[in-house]
Here is the input.
Amino acid sequence: MKNLKLTARGKTHRTVIDVDGVKIGEDLVVIAGPCSVETESQTIETAKTVQAAGANMMRGGAFKPRTSPYSFQGLGLSGLKILAKAKKETGLPIVTEVIDPRDVSWVAEFADVLQIGTRNMQNFALLKEVGRTGKPTLLKRGMYSTLEEWLNCAEYILSEGNAGVILCERGIRTFERYTRNTLDLSAIPAIHELTHLPIVVDPTHSTGRISLIPPMSVAAIASGADGLMIEVHNNPQEALCDADQALTPAMFTGLMKQIKPLHQFMTTLFDNHTQPTKGGE
Ligand code: PEP
Ligand code: MN
Here is the structure.
């Protein structure tokens, strides 16, 4: 791949991004929370339960890029204020999406990690703006994008002086309609071959089915993912966005019990996720 001057993997180097003590690329990072921030009680309750289950970062959208202009678009500034309260209560760093270049500077004041959604992966003005903030940024893979296109978008952010890019595989569009998208598990080891940047997997948007989230989470960790981003809602039936794919706190707690020992096992098995520790190259 050409022109990945800053994104391409060096011989041994791997980037570790420290967000309030969570070392992304080294620790298992689990980002959990609702699709969108709806109310203060929903957000804070969910934050507390995911934290108790072992999540180390909190997610929640205040700006929602919806397919229909008539769907709930997010609470905007008041949503960000609710996220700030959730952080105050739990200490969990906040991951939240920004969709408009004009909003980046003030959204960055609330976010510990800025999220670029799949629909905006190639919004180059947004990438440049986020790059200039220097804030850690979770860059989701465009649903129609190749790995090369995705990494070029990371390059846009890095080339503005922001070294903190976390890639997020969230599934791509294929002819399959049973799942919302098709999770490209091979992207995980491929990304570790191609770049020094960490990669997390979103089993929620990639499957759109609650029953498939636990097995795909396990598969992602077994494939070398640095972490997961999972939607959890304290009362999924009432969710204003993506109600069918949100785990309950109990489901999430059960999943965390499977994932943690698996991740620990994987770190004993692999060094740098792609190279066997013993008898390697
Ligand atoms: C999200 O994570 O809230 C989201 C909208 O995901 P995606 O951009 O992957 O569809
Ligand atoms: Mn969602």
In short: Residues 35, 61, 65, 97, 117-118, 140, 170, 202, 205 surround phosphoenolpyruvate (ligand 1) (CB under 6 Å).
